[in-house]
Design brief:
The chain has helices at 34-48, 50-56, 70-89, 95-116, 130-136, 146-157, 159-175, 182-196, 202-208, 215-228, and strands at residues 257-258, 267-268, 287-288, 293-294. The protein has 298 residues and is an all-alpha fold.
Length: 298
């Protein structure tokens, strides 16, 4: 999956410190050949998107979460714009660099178009969006040694902050008229309830496999699992964390049809297939207990 990039949010949000994800400085790229500039972008992108780095197999960032706040999207977009300018200005040295320049320009340019349209911070679906990435990245992490589990514990501790940032971004996107279809919001909420509920929630099952680790590390892992599932001792999934607003209209239903999965009274008219600010936003949606966020309309 190619990296996704974004730019500065258009609406004010809470201070970045509330999201608890350390900012990543995006260095200024120096002029170089196409291959060298592309390689530098991969290294610098990996630092700015640790989850993406794990998916790409780039090591050195596995103990951190990606900053999904508006500031994090903005940092990655600035990095992408800088890299794109470098590649466009570079003179290809041979046919391989010419092909590389074409591919890089098309891919990164498209990512920036998606950002400029305000769609990156609005990404929310039940197959491939940041919510799933936060959960699935742990499937790719080694757990054979105590050192491996220390890395898992540090990343696990960053889950609540990453999801708080994502919640802020979804709100900014919604305020700008870019929201996921209502049925997607409901399905993602159901996914997260599954991950955080049942006999053994996902993160509980993950840390239960930490055999032979020191007691202090086991305690850190267990504490991280509770926080990542947004649960408190003696309570079920808590649903009072802020989240994104979503319009009442479903942008993918047939014109005039009621969406059976969205509840009574939710329609998608033929002339309103894309959710926007004119849609009503006064309905409550299920909580994302598993990801520590609540998607709510209103």
């Amino acid at each position: 999956m190619p990296p996704r990039v974004s730019d500065q949010a258009s609406a004010p949000v809470e201070p970045a410190a509330r999201w608890s994800v350390p900012p990543v400085a995006c260095p200024v790229m120096t002029s170089n050949g196409v291959h060298a500039s592309s390689d530098a972008y991969v290294r610098e992108y990996a630092a700015a998107d640790p989850i993406g780095a794990t998916f790409m197999g780039v090591g050195g960032h596995d103990d951190r979460m990606t900053d999904y706040s508006p500031d994090g999207f903005a940092d990655r977009a600035r990095l992408a714009r800088s890299a794109l300018a470098q590649v466009r200005s570079a003179q290809p040295r041979d046919d391989t660099e010419a092909v590389a320049a074409d591919v890089f320009t098309e891919r990164i340019g498209l990512d920036l178009e998606i950002h400029d349209a305000g769609l990156d911070m609005a990404a929310l679906n039940m197959i491939a969006s940041p919510v799933q990435d936060v959960r699935m990245v742990f499937d790719l992490m080694p757990t054979a040694t105590t050192q491996d589990w220390e890395v898992v514990a540090r990343r696990l501790a960053g889950v609540p902050g990453a999801l708080a940032g994502l919640s802020a971004s979804l709100r900014v996107a919604s305020d700008a008229g870019n929201s996921a279809a209502l049925r997607q919001v409901r399905r993602v909420a159901a996914q997260c309830e599954t991950w955080s509920g049942g006999v053994q929630p996902f993160f509980d099952a993950l840390v239960a496999g930490a055999d032979g680790v020191p007691d202090s590390l086991r305690a850190d892992l267990q504490e991280g699992a509770v926080a990542a599932s947004a649960r408190r001792p003696g309570r079920g999934g808590h649903r009072d964390a802020p989240g994104a607003a979503d319009p009442e209209r479903d942008g993918v239903s047939r014109g005039g049809a009621v969406d059976a999965g969205a509840g009574p009274g939710v329609h998608a008219d033929a002339d309103d297939r894309r959710p926007g600010p004119r849609a009503r936003r006064d309905r409550s949606l299920p909580g994302l207990a598993g990801s520590g966020t609540l998607l709510q309309a209103g």
